Amino acid sequence: MEITTERLILRPLGPKYLATYNEYAMSLENARYMCFLPVEDEKESLEFLKAAEEEWSKPAPKYYEFAVIHNGVHIGGISVHMEYGKPVLGWIINRKYQGQGFAYESAKAVMDYFAANLGIRYFCAYCDTRNTASFKLMEKLGMKRVHESAGRKNRASSEEASEYKYEIEMP
Questions:
Q1: What domain count does the chain have?
Q2: The predicted structure's pLDDT at residue 4
Q3: Residue 17 falls within a domain, yes or no?
């Protein structure tokens, strides 16, 4: 599966992206609001990338991890994970490329592709309540805030945070 937009190509994420994945996945500054990042070392990254590649080969993947490619450069990732049969969106863009609309463009493309080709029209997404850029992106995508809860544990933090849940049902 490959999805193209005006500026981006979204391709299956795998081990060939190890170096560029580590640029954002090992960065505390880049991943401070993430539940599963930053990764601790290259070994952990490689295990994740191998598992993501293997998942793509299954007839019915439980999750889809895309590499976001801009001008031939891997600049981030976007994912769709099935949670209790419902698709959950997630994204991360290398700090060097943030603020240029790449997260929006890739998320919108994934949502449109899944709606048109897989019949999936419902999506949800979660973020740390302090991650203003993330929840503003969800709102720009047309998602609505439906819940706020405590108890979020970001990997890079020893304290608990609060979390927003957003949803959309596409026409």
A1: 1
A2: 97
A3: yes
